[in-house]
Structures are given as C-alpha cells and as structure tokens.
Backbone:
C-alpha cells in the first residue's frame, strides 16, 4: 500500500518507569517523543507510530520532497 503523506509530532516528556528501564536512563531525564500518522493516497490514516528515545543519543532528520502550504485560520 503506497503512503502519500505522514505527519509527525515531536516533543519531550519524562519517561515512564518501563521506558526508563528499557532505555537505560534516569526517570528525571526527558525523553524525546515522536508520534507519526501515515496516510494512504485517499488521506485515510493507515499507520500510527509512537516512539520514545533518549534525548542525549538521538538525532532526527527530516527531508521534504514536496512542500505544500496549507492556510490556517489561527
């Protein structure tokens, strides 16, 4: 199934006890979070991805092949 777009929300928060254990990090150190929704050609969401990473060992790279500007009403 070809995907036509994805939208990611990047943030930071304190890790849960389980995440801190899995990531071998203290609970007081923020984790970088990424929530991504991928859509098919009709715009229907088909994949949801959530991740938490150590902020001291993570790089995030974004590449744009096509840029579309959507006006907002803010």
Residues:
């Amino acid at each position: 199934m070809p995907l036509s777009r994805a939208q990611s929300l990047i943030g930071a928060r304190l890790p849960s006890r389980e995440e801190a254990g899995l990531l071998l990090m203290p609970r007081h150190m923020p984790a970088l979070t990424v929530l991504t929704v991928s859509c098919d050609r009709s715009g229907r969401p088909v994949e949801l991805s959530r991740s938490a990473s150590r902020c001291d060992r993570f790089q995030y790279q974004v590449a744009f092949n096509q840029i579309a500007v959507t006006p907002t009403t803010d």
Q: What stands out?
A: Residues 17-23 form the longest helix (7 residues). Helices lie at 17-23. The two ends are 34 Å apart (CA to CA). Residues 19 and 35 are 15 Å apart (CA to CA).
